[in-house]
Amino acid sequence: MILTAKLIPGQKISEKELEQRLTIGRTPICEAIIRLRREALIHVVPQSGTYISKISIKQIEEARFVRETLEKEVFVATCQAVTEEQLKELEKLVILQRTYAQLKDEIEFFQLDEALHQLIYKIADKENVWNWLQTINLPLNRFRFLRLEV
Fold it and tell me: Does the keyword DNA-binding belong to this entry (predicted)?
């Protein structure tokens, strides 16, 4: 909900509201809030409430820099290693992305874009790099989704 901008930066949230909205119990909500705080996606202001964290432009720029720098090498490695079968998988993902872009389904489009990039890293035998990138990609992905127009 944070990544897809259903909860926007600066918005106040409450456990009770989330329980009702998601129709799940208090314990999973509490566990999720702990994890979201650890990932800096939410922050607590004493005697005020819990808020969706704002997006840091510096974090976005740094994440984009890292990703662009790495992806140049990853794409070269992918081009050298890709098989016909993998190429067909990549093409299938691109076709699906076009379909969901035409349907204006931002969530599915975004998920397919992530799947496409993950497959590129896998073909390049850099899956651990992709997994590591996910830790710094959160601010970038939030920003990408907020400005996504399909």
Answer: yes
The boundaries of every CATH 1.10.10.10 domain in the chain are 12-52
Taken in order 116, 120, 121, 123, the sign of the CA dihedral is positive
For residue 57, how many other CB atoms are within 10 A of its CB? 10
Q: Taking residues 46-63, report their average pLDDT.
A: 88
CB neighbours of residue 147 within 10 Å: 8
What is the maximum span of the chain, computed from C-alpha positions, in angstroms?
59
CATH of domain 12-52: 1.10.10.10
CB 29 within 8 A of CB 15: yes
Q: What is the mean pLDDT of residues 111-138?
A: 94
pLDDT at residue 148, as a whole number: 60
Residue linked to tokens 């998920």:
111
Tens-digit pLDDT profile for residues 85-94: 999 999 999 9
Length of the chain: 150
